[in-house]
Write a structure and sequence with these properties.
Order of helices and strands: HEHHHEHHEEHHHHHHH
Strand order of the largest sheet: 1-2
Helix content: 55-70%
Structural class: mainly alpha
Number of strands: 4
Radius of gyration: 19 Å
Shape: globular
Strand content: under 5%
Number of helices: 13
Length: about 250
Amino acid sequence: MKETATPGDAGTTTTPEGVAAGGSSDPNVINAMYKVGELMSRPPTGEVTFQAFSTLPPITTLLGDRDQDLSREELAECWSDGSLGATRVDRAGFERVWKEVQEYFEEDIMEEARVTCHPKGKVKKTRTAEAEVVGTGSPQVGANLSEDQMKVVNEQVKKMSDDDMQQMLEGMANIGPEEEARMRAMGADPAMMKKAADMMKTNPMMRKAAQMMMKNMSPDQMLKASQQAQAQMGNMSEEELEKAMKQMNQDAK
């Protein structure tokens, strides 16, 4: 007899025959996403809001302005159709919205999100074996960190409280020339990091979303997410970056 999980339960469910494990139709995936959505909803008293649904990693990865991306208008339509007009959805309503999003894509949305998170041909090796981001000439984020060092960073991030996060952001917003030089050597843009720190300091929801996402990431996932963000920002103008950051700030409120 197959194991089942009650709606909203994060327990493991046997993947139905014909359903790919880890795919968008896998009940374990839907359960996990629903639980994250519950935690990200405000207040976190059960069920999921549209704002929280919009922050789920696969959804944010698939959102964009390209033809192959999911637009914000399309996401809003998915919510409207799947939620049946409700402002918060239970497990069943969440699955309906989730399936509405899947309808926009030919391929499984979990696999689509993974492909987007792990783009091919974006990174090359120099003669010194130091990774660079194509088109920017900047060292790739984390290129100088060993596997053990990445594990230490990952563990430190997962243990951070909101107070720890605010102190870190305060320090990032007031870095000096030496710290800026170190950040550039790591492939980070000091000016953009300062802006991001200032924005997150005054936006508790954005801080919580970032902490929740990082706590669920392995060292490898955290590194790849940072590198992907660096690659995307490297192809954006200053005006486009400013607009994107303002939009993120509004979405997290």
